[in-house]
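Risk register update: the risk of archive-format incompatibility is retired. Evidence:
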Amino acid sequence: MTDPVFKRIFGQEKEILIELINAFIDLDEPVIDIEYLPQELLADTSDGKVSIVDVRCIDSNKRHFIFEIQIIRQLFYEERVLYYAAKAYSRQLLKSRKYEDLQPVYLLSILDHTIDENSEEWLQRVSFINETNLTRKIKGIHLIYLELEKCRKRINFTMKNKQDRWITFLTEPEKIMTMSTQEKHDYPNLVKAVELLDESNYTPGQLIAYDKYLDGIMTWNSTMVQSFDNGFDEGILKGKQEGKEEGREEGMMLGTDQTIAILRELKIGKKEIDDIASEFNIPVQKIMELKSLL
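Archived output:
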């Protein structure tokens, strides 16, 4: 699921990527051959912004495919991928081309979290439709979300299903190597994808890039933890000050030690608000006010 490994497998092995495309993207005609394109989408003339995607390619029918891997939940992610797909679609229209030459763009996002909490569907397909006639679609931009968090909760997996095979690779690749000899023979691209997870199949340069990526992730995590701790400490100080003012007004001032104890319970998150209020013998509303400081 890491960026360098994802690009190594799906960004360099055409046969593996073709199999992934045909498994998860609903096409009138299956993909037979592809040509890799630069990860950078051309900059807008207005702001010079360059969009970089994980993997991008075009098939023999000139259809465009973009692949994004997203491990960490990100705000406005759907808006970002729509922007990527729209940019790829519009860049087809060069001066020498006509509107009828435009080919559809498919963007597959592989997410290690849930993007739609209100749906049990683990494969979301989004496209432009006519709201008065839902059967009529405009074949221009298509967004596909594969939510692995929901996939892990499924129990009816079968290696005979092409989607299940690749979901198994993305979530539990070690299971691929437990397949029978016949299954390994039938699904060579799946086996090759697992073999490419072995560090011995990477060049020194690729290993350096991988280490830099992991270092960046650890640095980001450390920064976020430190920011949270700093914010927590600042919240306690703010709580002391605001608590005193509110206490004077309401005639119900909390002690410093009591305020800190309540905030820590809220931070741990194992107790219900009603239980905390009962334990410290203060109104639930006061607990809610302290919770807002976090």
